Amino acid sequence: MYRILIVEDDIVIAKSMKNCLCQWNYETEYIVDFKDVIAELVQFDPHLVLLDISLPFFNGYHWCSQIRKISKVPIIFISSMSDNMNIIMAVNMGGDDFIAKPFDLNILVAKVQALLRRTYSFGGKMDVIEHKGVVLSLSNATLEYKDTKVELTKNEFKILQILLENIGKVTSRDAIMTRLWESDSYIDDNTLTVNVTRLRKKLSDIGICDFVKTKKGIGYMVE
């Protein structure tokens, strides 16, 4: 079943689109908190996004550019701002199609079906892990926070990935070292401490403080 995320602040329109798409057996959700669309997008992992231009806090162009940093998910802009300039802007920002308001729900369904058929060769999950605004890219070992991107070493990346895969749980030092050994990274107890210290420094440098916590005598965790 394809998942569709609606980013539309008019709740009547959002509910109407959701009800219609659910009738076509699409798993559909709409955003209710527009402060951090990316966090909800990563959590829901949609196959297609329906995106309005006029939104609270940040407009649709902003969120389109943020989505394109982490995903190839198809995006259809839906807006009453349907002059040529906005349509061109939407496409240039990374949108795949544009529907002008007001619109017929049958047109919406037809365009959704066509775009899913046309573009769903990539078909995998998004190669990112997101937590509290911190986005770890699994494809290129980079970390992004508030528009700042940081390159991580192989060990730093793997350590953070392990902790983010176990949010709220303590991961023992032995378990981390075992995972790193499995990925052909030579690491002992001393090296692990050095790598965690360097990782924390990189996090702190971009404003992410107290993210990796030490549980004395046990290991590390991200809450």
Automatic annotation (TrEMBL):
GO terms for molecular function: phosphorelay response regulator activity; transcription cis-regulatory region binding. The modification 4-aspartylphosphate is found at D52. It comes from the Bacteria. PROSITE patterns: OMPR_PHOB (PS51755), RESPONSE_REGULATORY (PS50110). Residues 3-116 form the Response regulatory domain. CDD domains: REC_OmpR_NsrR-like, trans_reg_C. This is Stage 0 sporulation protein A homolog. It comes from Clostridium magnum DSM 2767.
